[in-house]
UniProtKB/TrEMBL annotation:
Molecular function in Gene Ontology: hydrolase activity
Biological source species: Streptomyces niveus
Protein name: Peptidase M20
SUPFAM superfamilies cross-referenced by the UniProt entry: Zn-dependent exopeptidases (SSF53187)
InterPro entries associated with the record: Peptidase_M20, Peptidase_M20A
Length: 425
């Protein structure tokens, strides 16, 4: 990475690009500025802007749209307008078979420490997820262009710069509409931290909400009301014990629970969130059905356990009536590919390392390429979400890793170009 690359990354890190789902609204969102700054740098390599606009209102109304997204679009003025997407193209529009696409999200989670560069390490929100990889991508493109004249002439390159990856938006008003508009290639690379390993899978996730809608009580008569805290706490343990075996290619996350904060009250209402990831839509359907069954069993066991307790007998008797399950997010696709062409191109020709088969995949916007004809899709980037403290205080990216990523991108592009030229001959 050049000095200009480093300056660009520091500028991008300084811009506030956490979306309203992360901040709650009311704070500036500088995605327009971040994308424009990136486009200016990419323009020096020959890229031109072919799309720069927010998604339309129809993108936040479908059955696969997370409920939080639909609610935010309805209640937050300018929700979509402050979260645009950009597409850059190198060279003329070419057939899909001759095109490679890179996807990078410019939005971040909220928070993060101060922006800095020590000479070897960048700190700041988005440094590894995913503004750092975005700038490393540019450095790799610059090297590949110098080595392969076919890029931009016989081989096209697209870059998607998207919003709506973070905050639980799941790409529904970012990557998804761009894919539907045809901004894809034969090879599609999602620039997310994978430790320089090629991952051809991406899980999707669904979020269930357990609600208890009962009657409050006071501490002097705790048995007179419904104790949502005890009921939801019991069900949380039951789900944590019984549900994971059904998540054969994903994870079960028993997440946030809330009933109240006072010490002298019995809360009759509350909620528990469960996030379920899955590696195939078939697993997702089975996991959804399993949750219904496991929950029903849990409610029955709670009734049996506390039926004779003076304090909790009312809650036990009415547990089935006051407990409800609804879904805040479901119906999303999952990406799973066992693609021999990717293996030959990226692992054999480009010499990149594969993602270990025994490690689980993770959720990202690559899910929206599932089932798209004549495409292959991978997730590939520097760093590690956990080790580099993505989504946490102290997020960082090492310059050496971004330089290494640039070299890998160069090899990837040269291999794709040679493969395309070989097919043309």
């Amino acid at each position: 990475m050049t000095e200009s690359d480093r300056e660009l990354l520091l500028h991008l890190l300084a811009l506030r690009t956490a979306g309203p789902l992360e901040t709650g609204g009311g704070e500036p969102v500088e995605l327009w500025e971040a994308q424009s700054a990136y486009a200016e740098a990419a323009g020096r390599l020959g890229f031109r802007v072919v799309h720069h606009a927010p998604a339309g209102p129809d993108t936040v109304t479908g059955s696969d749209v997370p409920r939080a997204v639909g609610q935010a679009a309805d209640t937050m003025p300018g929700f979509l307008d402050c979260q645009p997407n950009m597409v850059l193209r190198l060279g003329p529009e070419l057939p899909r078979a001759a095109t490679v696409m890179f996807n990078v999200h410019m939005d971040t989670v909220a928070g993060g420490g101060p922006v800095s560069f020590s000479g070897s390490r960048f700190h700041g929100r988005g440094s590894i997820d995913a503004k750092g990889p975005a700038v490393g991508l540019l450095a790799g493109l610059r090297a590949a262009l110098a080595a392969s004249p076919a890029l931009g002439t016989e081989v096209g390159v697209l870059i998607q710069l998207v919003a709506g990856e973070e905050g639980g938006a799941m790409g529904v008003f970012g990557t998804k509409p761009l894919v539907e508009q045809g901004y894809v290639g034969r090879l599609n690379v999602f620039c997310e931290p994978t430790g320089f390993r090629v991952l051809s899978r991406a899980t999707a996730s669904m979020t269930a909400r357990l609600r208890v809608d009962g009657r409050d009580g006071i501490d002097d008569e705790p048995g007179a009301g419904h104790n949502a805290t005890v009921l939801l706490g019991y069900l949380a343990q039951h789900l944590a014990s019984e549900l994971p075996p059904y998540a054969v290619d994903g994870q079960v996350c028993v997440a946030g629970m809330n009933t109240g904060s006072m010490h002298n009250k019995v809360y009759g209402t509350g909620q528990l969130l469960i996030n379920l990831s899955y590696g195939s839509q078939d697993t997702g359907r089975k996991l959804e059905a399993a949750l219904d069954d496991v929950l029903r069993t849990g409610v029955e066991r709670f009734r049996e356990r506390f039926a004779d307790s003076p304090t909790f007998a009312t809650t036990a008797r009415d547990a089935a009536r006051v407990t409800h399950l609804d879904w805040l997010k479901r119906g999303l696709p999952a990406l799973y590919a066992d693609d021999a062409w990717v293996g030959e191109l990226l692992l054999e020709r480009a010499g990149l390392a594969p993602w270990p088969a025994e490690l689980p995949a993770f959720t990202c916007d690559a899910i929206w390429l599932a089932g798209v004809p004549d495409t292959s899709t991978v997730v590939f980037g520097p760093g590690d979400l956990g080790a580099n403290q993505a989504h946490a205080e102290g997020e960082f990216a090492d310059l050496a890793d971004l330089d290494r990523y640039a070299r890998h991108i160069e090899r990837l592009l040269i291999s794709f170009a040679r493969n395309r030229l070989d097919q043309g001959n």
